[in-house]
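Notebook, bench 3.
Goal today: get a predicted structure for LPS O-antigen length regulator from Pseudoalteromonas nigrifaciens so we can plan the truncation constructs. The sequence was checked against the plasmid map this morning, with no discrepancies at the termini. Length recorded as 320 residues. Pasting the sequence as submitted so the record is complete.
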Amino acid sequence: MNNNQANIKENNEYVQSHNNNIADDEIDLRELFAVIWQGKWLIIAITALFAVASVVYAINQPNIYKSEALLAPAEQEGSGGLAGLAGQFGGLASLAGVNLGGGSSNKAQLAIEVLKSRQFTSDFIQKHNILPDLMAAKTWDMQTNTVVYDSEMYDAQNNKWIREVKAPFKPEPSMQEAFKVFSKIISASTDKESGMVTVSVEHVSPSVAQQWVSWLIEDINKSMKERDVLEAVKSTDFLTQQLEQTKIADIRAVLYKLVEEQTKTIMFAKVRDEYVFKTIDAALVPEEKFKPKRALIAILGTMLGGMLSVMLVLVRNYMK
């Protein structure tokens, strides 16, 4: 009997405690809303300030246009013969410094990495003289289709860099600075399922973006072609020397076959402009901007202002 009464008493105490906790939570929520209501004008003011600032910021951001091209890795002619030779004489060819391996996919991936390299980027910028368009472009004049440069960085009339920087930097941006900026606005990616390659460029001028994509494709094909031709010429010279030094018929037959394949490589490289990448969908001058998303910037800025203002009101209240 006593045990039952004790259990009933404990249950009543638990229920009462639970009800008190609920009441405390209700009181805390009411107090929280009361504090927010008391500081509503401060919240409104800060939120409005952030909203206006975000709208002004979004409006002042220049339009960025994105041009892209769809490419397919070019098939390497004579790859069947090279594959057979690689299986039979791969060890001998590697000792001779002759490259028999590497299909079109491997060559395409190598070309993408070369495209992203510092050396290729530096050569590309200097060859096409695009440093002002890369580093000093501020906006784009649609009426004249010209790039408007930042007057604090570059004097377009005199073709002179006038930016003020501290050592070791100079008024004219270095290739290291240019590479950092260039690597942010270009993209080269491979679709894992189809194997297609997409090369894109973002710029304030849609014409510049389209031109750079076309130049990139042209230059990377030319660069990879020159690499393979140079390697094939060196390999041919070496194999020719070995032919002069050996009298064994079997080895001479192998060397003649290797020389033949290197000659094919040189021939195919010289007759093909699209050596590594074939253009499936060429780059166009975009008509619509790619970014910024001004509405999204304004919404996020307003939300940020609202959250910060509520936190400020709550912190002020609890600090009192």
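The chain has ten helices and eight strands. The two ends are 53 Å apart (CA to CA).
Flagging this for group meeting.
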